[in-house]
Each structure stands twice: as structure tokens, then as C-alpha cells.
Amino acid sequence: MKYNIYNYIAVFFSLAMLTTSCVENEDLVQLDPTNDAVDSFWKTDQDALEGVNAAYGSLLTDGTYMRSTPLLLDAKADDARTNSPWASMYNVGHFNSNVADAAIYGWAFETYYQGIYRANQVLTNVPNIAFTDAALKNRILGQAYFLRGLYLFHAVNLFKNVPLPTELAVYYPQKTQAEGWAQVISDFKTASELLPTSYDGVSGLDAGQKGRATKGAALGYLGKAYLFTKDFTNARTTFKQVIDLGIYSLVSNYRDNFTTANENNSESLFEVQFSRDAGGVELGWGGAPTSGWGKTSARAITYAPRAFGWTDVQPTWALFNEYQEEKTTANTIDPRLDATIFYNKPGTKLYGKDFAVFYASSPADLNDLFCRKYQNSDGEFADEYDWRSGINERLLRYADILLMYAECLNETGDTPGAYGYIQMVRNRVGLPDLATVKPGMTQDQMRDQIGHERFLEFPLEGHRFDDIRRWGWLQDATKLEWLKSRDAEFNSYLPGREYFPIPQLEKDNNPGIIQNDSY
């Protein structure tokens, strides 16, 4: 059952909804001195497991992977566009988030620090528990380090200079982005040393449970943090460690990575677990998931095609056109196109409806592009309006490890070595041998090729804008003009707007916080 790791979130942790770097009214509420629930917690192995489960719970709320975080990662890139009628969402995609309106980005910021707070409780209290199972203790601590690293990864990556809570306190000073990345690296490195490669071979309370962080997930994110800081040598070594684990492989059907079919598969290093089996009717937006929630992942309804959801995010024509630049060895269009985008192709069906027939009375929609990734659109459901998508969010795939490793090989002088790892990803979709069609590329040419390969492998998965930012394309006048020609939303870009503003509430409540440039 995908929700196993969240079944034990204690009522105690529902109090931990504030960010650790600011003070809310709730901080002033005193506990009843006759209630010893907090004092009696953190005594047993089971308490520790419930504590780390609460830290996982922050991945499921609206600020993180229920909806907001995918939007923040996708909307600014040239593979996605948004014409949402909701100004807060529209502004995310147009580099115009408003300091006075923290909807979406502020919810994400708050939830990242909620998750950090919960992970810190584990890291503070679990070492003092006398475990009956020492290996379980290490696994729980490893998961807490991983989760803190993941939440900090998002905070540093999206908001630049942020507080770095590593212990329980009232205020935390703002740190530089370099200090932030150093802490992220430290957390993932520690996690990788404590976590198992799988929970199938362990004994204890967490035995066999899917969705928990593993050594491969920690190493994968550690390598990613090195890559984002241009430490290509360490990134190369770390990604090779993941490859050498010998437990990951690409699934044969690319689309299996974005449906309920074949979840937690051989390609997945880490995914957020959603399930339609979550009962209840409440539209839960924040806090710890409860049995009353009737909404699970809201990505599907947010990105859904017109009349099947809100259509707040759509693919760009640049993405559609780039898929058709190179045919497969069978002289067909890259199959990732149809797995990613709904368009007016003969025979295309969505939610049991023929595309051409359904949109016949609306020429604009008939000739438009809609998201197919992460949609429950194969005919089993009529639409996404029940807010109950159970599709797991795949945060890190083995295909990403392969292409990031190829990038590191290229950046460390082994351009010829990059070909083979790129080809592993191309082979799945039947593309010709890159070494044959583009032999002897220079390092610069290979950089552009890797950009193309990543664009077609990971659209609408939250990677493209991260790539644009870390490659420095926004500071390169030629690249920026190219991006504007592909996606008009880049015409709104101003230097500094590659990051989101620090929420005003954080500035008000945490002395000394300096706002990001351009806000």
C-alpha cells in the first residue's frame, strides 16, 4: 500500500505547521501542563518511525508536491506556458511573482520549513532513544537527513539566500546560497552513509515499505547538488556510485514513469507516494495528511487538458517542434511526444474521448497543445475534477542520473565517454546512434546536445528551468534571445527573477532577512 509510510503521523506533529525560521501566533499557545503527550513522545522505536513519517508528510501538502512545487519548477521554463486566470499562478510563469501576494511560492517556502522542522525533531530526539533495533535507528536518521536535505535543496534552489535550520530554535539567520548548498551536500552525504539500497532486505518496523529514501536517492541528490554548484569532479564520482549500485535500469515504456502503472519501478530513485485510496471528502490544503482528506495529488487537475481540468499549464510549441527534429530508426516521431503532449493527431483519445471530435466545436483547442504527463487520461476516469489523482510524483529517475553523468564526463574532459550514457536514454525511444549521426562533437557542441537531450527526456518534470538557470543561459544575451524566441514568457524576465522572492511574512518575522534582487 503506497500510504504505509504515512499511516502513523501522530497528532503531536500536527502542531508543527509553522516554519522554523519565523514566529507565528501558534507559537504563543501554551500546552496544557496536565497534558504530557509531548514529554512522553520520543521514547520508542515506534515513536521514532512516526516522527520521520511526519517529515515525509510535508511532501504531500499543497505547498510541495500536491501542487505548488511542480508549478514553481515547471512554469518558468520553455517547455511550459501558463495563461491561468489566477494571477498568482500566471505570474509564476511570467517572472512576475508579487512580494505582496505570497500565494503558491509562499506556501512552498512555508512547507519546506515545516518539513525541515519535522526532520530536525527526529535528528534532535532519535539519538537519545534506546532502540531495540540499532539498524532501524540508522535508517530513520538517514531518512531524516535525506528529507531535510531535500527540503533545503528546494529552498536554496528556488529562493537563493535562506535560513538553514539544523537544530530547534526560534530564529535562524539568513545564509548565503553557497552556505545553503554546503548544508544540502552535507545532509545528503550523511544520508547516503546511513540508508540501505532497499527496504526489501531489512527487518524491522519499516521492512519492505516502498517510498522511503534509499542510498541511491541520497547519492542521486548529492550528485545533483554537486552538479548545481559546478563541482563536476565530485558529481561525476557520485553519479558513478549510483550507476555502480547495479539496481537501477530504464523501464521499457517511457510513459510508465507518469501513470499509476509500474510505480516505484526500476527507474525510480525517489518518488512521492500518492493514492486514490485516501479516504474522506475534505479538500486538505496544508498540515499533516489526515484520514478525512479527499484530495491527493492536484497536479493532474491543475495541468489537465481543457474541459478535463483547469489547464493552468500547457506545453509550448517549441517543445512540440523539437520532438520532430529527429526521427527514430523506424522513421517515426519520437514516442516521447505522444507520452508528453495531447494534440490533434488522428486516433488520439483523452479520457475516453476522441480528441478531434471532442474539440471540433472549438478551433482554438483543436489546434492547441495539452499536457499528457501525469494525467489519468487513458479512459478509466472521465476527468480530473474530483481532485483525487493517485499518480506518484517521480522526483528523480535513472534517466536523469545517466544524462547528468554524461554531462559531468563532458565537463571533465571526457566528451567521447558521454556518448554511451546519452545513447542509453536514446535507445529506449528508438533514436539512432548519436556517435554515428553526430560523431566527434566538441565539448561545446556536446553541451548543446545534452541540453537538447534533457529537454526531450524531462519536459514538465520540473528540471528544465533548473537547467536553464544553472547553465547561465539567462545571463547569456544570445541564449536569452533564443529562449524569448521559443517562449514569449521570457520577455518578462528581469535579472534576479530566476529566483522567487522571500515571502514578506518571513521578512516581517525573522529579523535581518534581506529580499532577493529585483523584488
From TrEMBL:
Primary site of residence: membrane
Residues of the SusD-like N-terminal domain: 80-227
Pfam families cross-referenced by the UniProt entry: SusD-like_3 (PF14322), SusD_RagB (PF07980)
Keywords: Cell outer membrane, Membrane, Signal
Gene3D superfamilies, per the entry: 1.25.40.390
Domain RagB/SusD, first and last residues per copy: 267-519
Organism: Flavobacterium pectinovorum
InterPro entries linked: SusD-like_N, SusD_RagB_dom, TPR-like_helical_dom_sf
Keyword Aminoacyl-tRNA synthetase: no
Protein family: Belongs to the SusD family.
Taxonomic lineage of the native organism: Bacteria, Pseudomonadati, Bacteroidota, Flavobacteriia, Flavobacteriales
GO cellular component: cell outer membrane
Name of the protein in question: Starch-binding associating with outer membrane
Domain of life where this protein originates: Bacteria
Keyword Cell cycle carried by entry: no
